[in-house]
C-alpha cells in the first residue's frame, strides 16, 4: 500500500501529459527549499548533549554541518533572485 501511495503522484504527472523530465527538475528545486529545515534541526539536536549524550557532535562536525545548511540556504536565495530577474553580483547570466 505504501508503494502505491508514493507512486501515485508520478502516475498523475504522467497521466496529465506533463514532461516527466521537467517535472523531475521542478520537484528537485522544491525539495531543495525544504532541505534547510531538517538540516537545521539535525545540527541543533546533534549539538545538544542532553539529546545525544556521549555521541554529541564535536566542534568540527558542527561547523561543517552548519556551513552546509547555510550553503543550501545561500544557493536557494541565489536561485530565487535569478528566477525573479534580480542580478546577483559576481554571477553572470
Tell me what you see in this structure.
The chain is mainly alpha-helical and 93 residues long. The protein folds into two domains: 1-32, no CATH class; 35-87. It is 75% helix and 0% strand. The chain is built from five helices and no strands. The protein has helices at 2-15, 20-34, 36-47, 49-52, 59-83. Helix 3 (36-47) runs antiparallel to helix 5 (59-83). The radius of gyration is 19 Å and the shape is flat. The termini are far apart. The model has no long low-confidence stretch (mean pLDDT 88).
- Overall number of structural domains: 2
Helical segment count: 5
Major beta sheet summary? none
Principal-axes geometry comes out as flat
Order of helices and strands: HHHHH
Subunit organisation of the chains: single chain
State the share of residues found in helices, binned by percent.
over 70%
Taking pLDDT < 50 over at least 5 consecutive residues as the criterion, the unreliable ranges are: none
Beta fraction: under 5%
Cα-atom Rg, whole angstroms?
19 Å
Overall pLDDT confidence: 88
Helix/strand class: mainly alpha
N- and C-termini, Cα separation: 46 Å
How many individual β-strands?
0
Question: What can be said about this structure in brief?
Answer:
By secondary structure, the protein is mostly helical. The protein has helices at about 1-15, 20-35, 35-45, 50, 60-85.
Essential attributes:
mainly alpha; flat; single chain; 93 residues
Task: Describe the secondary-structure layout.
Elements: H1 2-15, H2 20-34, H3 36-47, H4 49-52, H5 59-83
Helix pairs in contact: 3-5
Amino acid at each position: 500500500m505504501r508503494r502505491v501511495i508514493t507512486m501515485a503522484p508520478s502516475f498523475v504527472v504522467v497521466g496529465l501529459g506533463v514532461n516527466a523530465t521537467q517535472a523531475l527538475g521542478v520537484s528537485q528545486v522544491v525539495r531543495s527549499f525544504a532541505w534547510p529545515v531538517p538540516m537545521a534541526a539535525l545540527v541543533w539536536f546533534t549539538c545538544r548533549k542532553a539529546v545525544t549524550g556521549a555521541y554529541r557532535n564535536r566542534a568540527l562536525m558542527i561547523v561543517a554541518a552548519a556551513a552546509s545548511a547555510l550553503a543550501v540556504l545561500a544557493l536557494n536565495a541565489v536561485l530565487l533572485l535569478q528566477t525573479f530577474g534580480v542580478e546577483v553580483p559576481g554571477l553572470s547570466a
